[in-house]
Amino acid sequence: MKQLMKTNCIICKGEVENWDIAYPENETHVHPIGGTVFRTYGHYGSTVFDPMDASYLEIVVCDDCLRARMDHTYTGVNVKYKQELDDHRAEMDKLVDDLLLVELPEDDKE
Fold first, then answer.
1. 58: closest CA among 10, 110, 93?
2. What is the 3-state secondary structure (H, E, C) of the chain?
3. Are 81 and 31 spatial neighbours (Cβ–Cβ below 8 Å)?
4. Domain-by-domain residue ranges, the chain?
5. Which of 6, 10, 48, 110 is deepest in the core (most CB within 10 A)?
6. Reported pTM
7. How far is Cα 110 from Cα 99, in angstroms, rounded to an integer?
8. How far apart are the C-alpha atoms of 35 and 22, rounded to whole Å?
9. What is the pLDDT of residues 36-88, one digit of tens each?
C-alpha cells in the first residue's frame, strides 16, 4: 500500500495527512485531509516570493487554523471557473438522464 505523504500547517506546524493517493499518475500533489492548500505564483510587491518564472509556492493551512481566522479572509467567485463548472455539471446531468433512458435487457428467468 502506498504511504501517504505528510504535510504541515504553516501556522501551527501541525501534521496534516495528504491524500496524494487520489492521483494515480504517481506525481506528488498537495491535497491535505483536514486542511486547505493555497498556491501562488508570486505577487508583485512581495519580497519573499515573486519568481516570475512559472514556479509556484504551496502552503497548507489546517482546518482548525483556517476556521479560527476566517474573519481575516477575502472570498469571491471566479466567474469564468464557475461557468466551466456549471457547463460540466450540465453535461454530466445530461449523461445521467440519457443513461436512465436506456433500456437494459431483462435477465432470463429460466
1. 10
2. CCCCCEEEECCCCCEEEECHHHCCCCCCCCCECCEEEEEECCCCCCCCCCCCCCCCEEEEEEHHHHHHCHHHCCCCCCHHHHHHHHHHHHHHHHHHHHHHHCCCCCCCCC
3. no
4. 6-74
5. 10
6. 0.69
7. 27
8. 16
9. 999 999 988 899 999 999 999 999 999 999 999 999 999 999 999 999 999 99
Q: Of 55, 56, 65, 57, which is closest to residue 16 (Cα–Cα)?
A: 65
Q: Are 71 and 50 in contact (CB under 8 A)?
A: no
Inter-residue contact 19 to 5 (CB < 8 Å): no
Residues 59 and 71: their CA atoms lie apart, in Å, by 19
* Rg, C-alpha atoms of the chain: 21
All residues at 6 or more sequence positions from 5 whose CB lies less than 8 Å from its CB, including other chains: 18, 20, 28
- Give the C-alpha separation, 31 to 1, whole Å: 18
